[in-house]
């Protein structure tokens, strides 16, 4: 009977691929330990709704890629199940939709929504340069107006117009 607590991919009454058996088996292990979704969430640092989605196998409500693997590994280890067996049985879901869509949408480039483009960076650099030059020019003009600058530092046309 103790062997059934660690075997999550072979349960009668579920499909042969183990697609629906895994979520139910994870839930059964959690319930057999007397843990609520909130207790499990506190231990593995994932939201209770994500754990419920995994148990109910609502793939659209789960994170994709590495985050999903991390959720499954953490949850399986906490329950005493073999994480690699579970990940292998869920590989069609983990490999199926998200990575292929990501590859067709963005290719091999980094996401553009989070980082400024080269044009945005260069235009903002010019903006800062202009602001800094204007501040320096204002400081020099104020220094000339107050007479703080020696006259030999000033160009000839500027020193003659002031006197």
From TrEMBL:
InterPro entries the UniProt entry points to: Bact_Cytoskel_RodZ, Cro/C1-type_HTH, Lambda_DNA-bd_dom_sf
Entry annotated with the keyword Calcium: no
Claim: Transmembrane helix is one of the keywords in the record: yes
Annotated GO MF terms: DNA binding
Membrane-traversing stretches: 126-145
Protein keywords: Membrane, Transmembrane, Transmembrane helix
Gene3D superfamilies per UniProt: lambda repressor-like DNA-binding domains
Domain named HTH cro/C1-type: residues: 26-55
SUPFAM superfamilies documented for this protein: lambda repressor-like DNA-binding domains
UniProt biased composition (Polar residues): 1-12
Top-rank lineage group of the source organism: Bacteria
Protein name as annotated: Transcriptional regulator
């Amino acid at each position: 009977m103790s062997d059934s607590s660690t075997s999550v991919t072979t349960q009668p009454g579920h499909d042969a691929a183990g697609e629906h058996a895994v979520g139910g088996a994870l839930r059964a292990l959690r319930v057999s330990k007397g843990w609520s979704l909130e207790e499990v969430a506190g231990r593995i640092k994932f939201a209770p709704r994500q754990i419920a989605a995994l148990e109910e196998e609502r793939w659209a409500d789960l994170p994709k890629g590495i985050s999903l693997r991390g959720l499954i590994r953490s949850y399986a280890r906490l329950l005493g199940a073999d994480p690699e067996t579970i990940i292998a049985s869920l590989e069609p879901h983990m490999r199926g939709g998200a990575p292929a869509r990501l590859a067709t949408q963005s290719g091999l480039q980094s996401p553009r929504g989070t980082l400024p483009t080269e044009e945005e960076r260069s235009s903002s650099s010019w903006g800062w340069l202009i602001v800094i030059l204007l501040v320096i020019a204002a400081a020099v003009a104020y220094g000339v107006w107050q007479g703080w600058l020696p006259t030999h530092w000033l160009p000839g046309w500027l020193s003659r117009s002031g006197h």
